[in-house]
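Quick one: structure for this chain?
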Amino acid sequence: MLDIKFIRANPDIVRADLKKRGDPEKQEWLEDLLQKDKEYRQLLMDLEKMQAERNQITKKISEAVKAKKDATAEKKAAAELPKKIKEAEAKVIELQAKVKFYLMRLPNILHESVPVGKDEAGNITVREWGEKKKFDFTPKSHVDLIQELDIADLERAAKISGSRFYFLKGDLVLLEQAVLRFALDKMIKKGFLPISPPNMMKTEPYEGVTDLADFELVMYKDEKEDLNLIATAEHPITAMHCGEILPEEKLPMRYVGISPCYRKEAGAHGKDTKGIFRVHQFNKVEQYIICKPEDSWKLHEELIKNAEEVFQALEIPYRVINICTGEIGLVAAKKYDIEAWMPAQNTYREVVSCSNCTSYQAVRSNIKFGKVGGDKEHAHTLNSTAVATPRALVAIIENCQNKDGSITIPKVLVPYMGKEKITKR
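Got it. Here's what it folds into:
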């Protein structure tokens, strides 16, 4: 969330940002937040004065009793104060809760380079890479290929788990593991510390890392145990440092998480219902950085470059997209997507998301840095997919298919697979 001190000092910056986003409701929230915060601070001062007055009166009554003097006036004043203090305390709690409500829901301040747009039509292509393969046959969809090669079973998965689940089989299991290990090895060589996080998180730390709307639209929750299945390794890695002050000399801290991810895909009714592109459970290698504010924009470019290198190595044509205001969400200040070319669909589809969240998550999770004995400030956090399956598998299957129905394994994965092609068993 935004630091309330920043909002107090820079209300016009926040107003301009909400106007750029085209969100009139949150513009109204901002004005009410500013008013409620003003009332809260004034009432807090009044409350402190009443508490001090109560202490002074109590002292006077004690002194009067010891001196055997009349303390009637003081006792009358003392009798009236508890009710006033109790009412003020209740109002302070009420105003504090309202201020927090707004703070948890107002979006991050966007970088000036974020394009204005209502939906994906407003996204801007930054660059493209790779040549689209020219097939001398009509390319098949991954749905057809995985069935023909008998390397996945969607019907039996639906039977036991419902839609958007899958069994991977045989060589597709090995291909998935090869993709994940290749990406993990690549990030480790770049100095990222590998992390295998818990797959479930309590609600309180989870609220520190994501938009609260995600609890309804994205995440699965065990109400009885107050545990949420993670939607990405970014979330537990952020929460890992909640409430901490990190040594300045340790920054930037580079992590690479590998984990299953679980998503409801609420609102995706009717989209990608066949195949393994949009599913409720998948595996992902995630880049994550905690850094000083002055380094975050340089590191944002580093993260997207790393993800591009993965898809370049896999020889998958792609384009990098600068996500517009209507698509970016609350947490990121700027977000790139990588969209891989899917020849059977004759279009690009998202396979990577890369965000600079600036101090938004750090404020919510209270992650600061500084020198011993020196000032402390909120860190910046960044995250990016390195590779996520099964979307990467879909891109490989469709781009690397052959006329005979086999799939050529990308050269960088051959050492992991121990073979060059996937053929029908």
